[in-house]
Amino acid sequence: MATTADFKNGLCIEFNGDLYSIVEFQHVKPGKGAAFVRTKLRNLKTGKVIPNTFSAGVKIDLARVERRPYQFLYNDDNGYHFMHTETFEQLSIEEALINAPQFLKEGQGVEILIHAETETPLSCDLPPFVELTVTYAEPGVRGDTATNTLKPATVDTGATVNVPLFINEGERIRVDTRTGDYSERVKS
Fold it and tell me: What pLDDT, in 10s, does the model give residues 68-88?
């Protein structure tokens, strides 16, 4: 058991029979009346963010979750298959739990959030940036660099990323997995 004084971003709590992660919170002490805590909670199963207000000092149930390192192996009809990097146990999860499945490559390291009491996977987070190779991109035309124009490029995972005109086939780029945007060209 904990109270609202223990709130911090990323804390996992049990609320209304579901698991939620605190996205943001704010302690409010109005001039009149009792203090309260305004929060935004993300449902760990659906990903939906809801606002909620707690009275100051109210008791809440903490959920014990663990972030475990896994390596992506392959995907098939049964889901995405991962291997724990220390115990070599294999785990299969569905695509909906992965934050950016289009950027997964074989051998990619990820962190899987697991509910410690039931051993069920809650979410799979890729690193913030991944390095991918451009497998197809239209050639850029000389003189087309006056504006920040982007063109679609296909990367080795099969995903399409908008890149600047100077990016060509075979080049390695860094992609932000949170937004799916091009970040920079990787120097060899």
Answer: 999 999 999 989 999 999 999
